[in-house]
Amino acid sequence: MKRRAILAYLLDHPGVLQKVSMLIRKKMYNVDTLTVCKSRKPGISRMTITLREDDEARVSQVIHQLEKFTEVISAKELDTEHSYWREAAIIKIEIDSAQLEALRSEYKFEILDYKNHDTHIIQIAGSTRKIDAFVAQLGEEHIVEISRTGVAALEK
Amino acid sequence: MTGKERLLRALEKRGVRHIFGYTGGAIMPVFDCMDKLGIFKFVMSRHEQGATFMAQGVSRASLSTDDPQVGVCMATSGPGAMNLTTGIADAHMDSVPMLAITGQVATGVIATDAFQESDVVGVMMPICKQTYMPLEADEIEKTVHEAFYVATTGRPGPVLLDIPKDILNQQVSKDYKFSLENLRPNLPGFFYHPTPARAPVKKALELINRSERPVIFCGHGVISSNAGKLLQALAEKAKIPVAFTLHGLSAMPADHPLSLGMMGMHGTVEANRAISEADLLISFGMRFDDRVTGKLNEYAQKADVIHVEIDPSEIDKNVATTVAINADVYRTLHVLVGDPMLTAKPRRRWHARIDEFRQVMADDLRTEIKGGLGDEGKLLMKTIVSQLSDMTQGQDIIVPDVGQHQMMAARFYNYQTPNSWFASGGAGTMGASLPMAIGVKLVRPDERVWSISGDGGFQMNMQELGTIMEHKIDVKIMIFNNGYLGMVRQWQTLFFDGRYAGTPMLSPDYGQIASAYGIPYRKIQTLEQIAPAIKEAIDLKGAIILEFICDPSEIILPMIPAGGGFDDMIVKRPMPQKKGGKK
C-alpha cells in the first residue's frame, strides 16, 4: 500500500495528540510513524504522520476530519515528489572496526560512542529506504538496539 | 467570587434558563450555588441520560423560536458523567448543540482512582465537538463562553466541561476581569465559512437550470438554519420536488404538492424512485448517511450532485459531488432563490413520472390504513398515526422514539408546523423520546407535544415519568405496545425466516405505572376507541398515557434492505412468515 505523509500544524495543548491518534484509529489505520515537534510559532506544534493507504479519497477524508478539530490549524498531504521525507536512527551495534569503516564510507554515519573495541553507537540520518538498506546490510545479528525517530517531512 | 458562581453567571449571560441534571459529590457546590442564586429552573431527571435528552429537546425545539437556547445538563463525576455518554453521542451524531457540565474529583486526587473518579475528558473526546477541563477558577467563565461559541457555530455539536471540585470552590483572583464584548476565543483552527462562494453557486444554478429531472434533498441543516421557507421558495420557483431526510422532516408542509416525503431505507417509493432516476440531486445540509443511500456504488448513478454543507469534511465523504458549496444552508438558499439566473422550468414529464411513482403503493397503504387491523386483529400503528394527524391537523409537535413506530410517525403524520419533529436519528437511541419531549415542552409551552414510543423504548427511560409528575409537564404519551421490539422483528420477518430471537417482550401493567405516577391512562384496543382517546388527550390539560395495543405483524414498507440498492426496494408484503421460531 502506498505510504502517505500528512503534515499538520496544531495547538500545543494537552489531549490534542490523543484526539489525532483516536481519529486515525477510528478510521482503521495503524500509524506507521508519528513525529511531533515545536514549530517556529510559539504554542503551535508541527506533526508528521505517515500511514499506508492507496485510496486518495480516504486520505483526504482523514485530512478533512483532522482539520475539523478546533486545535488543528491546518493539515495537508505531502507527496514524495514535492517534499523531503527523512528520519534518523541511533543504533547500538556489535561489529569490528574494519567492517564498520567499510560501512561508514558507504553510508556516512556518525559514531557517537565506542563502548569497547567492537560495540559502537552510531547515528544515521536519511530516507527511510536508506536506513532500511543500512540495517539490512548490517544484518540483524549485529544490532543490539535500534531507535528510529520516524519520518520528519518538509516541502521543497 | 468563586468558580461555580462565575460558571452560573456565564450560563445566565448565554440565555440559559433550564438546567437538567442530577447532583452528587463533585458537582454539589454548583447546585448549592444555583439554589442560592435562584436564576435557573432546575429539572431533576431520574437518570443522567434523561437529562441529556431533555437538554437536546431544549436545543432542538427552541432554535426556530425567537429565543434559541442551548440545552445544558449537569452531572457529578464518575458514574454520573458516564451516564451522560449515550445522550452526548446522540447529540454528536445529530449535530445538536448542547453543553454538558460534569463535576470532577479535586485536582489533588485526580488520577489516583479516587472515589467516583473517571477520565471523563478521555471518554468524551471522540463524541464531543470539544472538551474542556479548566484548572483555575479564573478560566471558567472564559471557557463557558468559548464552549457556547464552539457548540453553536458551524455544524453544531455537544461540548463538555469537566470541572474539578476544588476549582469550583476556588476564589477568582483579586484582579480578575472578564468582559464578554472583548472575548476572542483563541481557536486558530476553527474555520467557518457561512457565505457561499460565487463560482460554485453559479455552477449550481447552471446545473439546476439545465436539469430535466432534479430532486432537492432537505436535510437537518435546513432545520438547524431555519431555512424551511427558503427551501420551499426554491422548490416552488424552480418546480423541483423535495425529498426529506429523517431530520429534514417538518421543514416544509408534508402535504405540499412538491413534497416526496422521506427518502432512504424506509422512505417513500416516490422519493427513492425519483432519486434513482434523477439527473441532479441538490442536497442541503445532509451527510448522505447509509440509511439514506443504501449501496453506495448503485446510488443515484445518473445524477450530478450539488452538495451544500457547512461541514467541509462531509463533502465528498460518501457521495462524490459535482458542485460543492461549503457554506451555511440559509445563506446559500437565500442567494439561490434571489438569483435572477434561476429559471422556472415546468418539467412536466418529470412530474408526471413522479406521479406514477406515487401510485405504486398508494392503494395498498390506503387500504391498510382504512382497515386499521393487522393479522392478529390488533391495531395498526399507521392507522393511529394517521388519525392523530387528522385530529391535530398536523399542527402538533411529534417526538418519536426509535424503531418501527418512529418510521410510522415520520411517514404518516402530516407535518405542518416548521420544526415540529424531533427524533434521535444518527445514533438511534431507544428511550430518547420521553425525556426529549420534556425538554421540548419546556421551550414550546404553547404547543401540544406528543411523545410516541414503542413498548421497548418506553421502558428504557420510563423513570422520567417521575420528572413529568414532579414538574407537571404536559406531554401526551403514546405507547405503541405490540409485545415485541418491532423494527428488529420486522427484519426477522423479512430476513431471518421469522425467527424472533430476543425480540418478544413482556410489558408491565402501564395502567398501574401511570397511576403510581398520578398520570391519567387509557388503554386502546379497538378502532373505535382511538379517536375518543386522542380527543381526550387533546382536551386534557396535563400529561396522559395512551397505550395502544398494536399488531406485531405490522411492517413498514417500502424498505430497502441494509446494504441493498434502491432497486432492491421491497414494496409488497412478503408471503406469511414461516412458523419456525419461538413466539
Keywords:
heterodimer, A: 156 residues, alpha+beta, Alpha-Beta Plaits, 2 domains, 5-stranded antiparallel beta sheet, 4-stranded antiparallel beta sheet, 4 helices, 9 strands, 29% helix, 44% strand, B: 583 residues, alpha/beta, Rossmann fold, 3 domains, 6-stranded parallel beta sheet, 17 strands, 14% strand
Question: Can you put this structure into words, describing what you see?
Answer:
- The complex is a heterodimer of chains A (156) and B (583).
- Chain A is 29% helix and 44% strand.
- Chain A has 4 helices and 9 strands.
- In chain A, strands 5, 6, 7, 8 and 9 form a 5-stranded antiparallel β-sheet that branches. Chain A has a 4-stranded antiparallel β-sheet with strand order 2-3-1-4, covered by helices on one side.
- In chain A, strand 6 and strand 7 form a beta hairpin.
- Chain A is elongated and about 55 Å long.
- By secondary structure, chain B is of the alpha/beta class.
- Chain B is built from 23 helices and 17 strands.
- Chain B has a 6-stranded parallel β-sheet, with helices on both faces.
- In chain B, strand 1, helix 2 and strand 2 form a beta-alpha-beta unit.
- In chain B, helix 3 runs parallel beside helix 5 and helix 3 packs across helix 18.
- The termini of chain B are far apart.
